[in-house]
Amino acid sequence: MAIRYWLVVSSRDHVRSAVDLGIVQVSHGARAGLDRMGESDGVVCYSPRTEHPDGDVLRSFTAVGRVADARVYQAVSLDWRPWRRRVDWDPTAESAPIRPLLGALELTRNAPNWGYQLRAGLLEISRHDFEIVRQSMQRPTPDDRRYPEERRWP
After folding, report:
1. Terminal C-alpha separation, the chain
2. What is the pTM of this model?
């Protein structure tokens, strides 16, 4: 089966919890979106805010990884049973703002109201967009050509 790529929309505090647990959870624990994901699919998280529901505006990509296996499972807690999938998150990824990528992403290019489609909480994106986001979240090295000379360090 072909690898697909997913954009999960969640506040940064929720993304950090998911990364710590090695899971992805969408739409407040709904199963439907997770069933569409397959093993090895790419996952990137976009955080419009720092905290749910009223944190500071962030508008950044906050995690990137791959679905670890084919199993969807339900977490056990006293009052809530959210559906989840295991994800191998990239531990070296750094938060990356979306604004510099707006013209490069198929998701946002020529779409003045691009944010509206994010309301669903989960959407499939192209491999092109996944790779652009993944690369933007990599730590720069001193010889990284993505940055002008004045931004490099010894």
Report:
1. 45
2. 0.88
pLDDT class of 147 with cuts at 50, 70, 90: low
Q: How far is the C-alpha of 146 from the C-alpha of 1, rounded, in Å?
A: 34
CA distances from 99 to 50, 113, 114, 132 (A): 16, 13, 12, 13
Phi, psi values for residue 151, rounded to 5°: -100, 0
CB atoms within 10 A of CB 54: 8
Contact 50, 88 (CB under 8 A): no
Asked if 40 contacts 75 with a C-beta cutoff of 8 angstroms, the reply is no
Q: What is the mean pLDDT of residues 51-75?
A: 96
How remote is the C-alpha of 97 from its chain's centroid?
Answer: 12
Q: Which amino acid is it at 142?
A: P
Domains and CATH numbers, the chain: 5-151 (3.10.590.10)
